[in-house]
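Entry type: protein chain
Record version: 2
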Amino acid sequence: MPWPEIVTIVHSESKGMSLKSIITRLSFLYAVYYVWIERNNIIFNKECKPVEVTITSIVLMVRSRMLSISNIPMAAGDN
């Protein structure tokens, strides 16, 4: 999938302050960040982490950030 199409999809899916929108934004943000870190690590240190390690790092960062947010609006059906 071309990069502009990915950005367009993420942009359309991440509008608003719903839980889904927040998770989409954070996931995209941390994925781009970790890909950039890995790129620099390969170029400058000649080291490459396994894909599973990078994915786990992204998931942990999103989870950590979600746990620190206190004002996430609940869905209409939540009590």
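Comment: Helices lie at 3-13, 19-45, 51-68.
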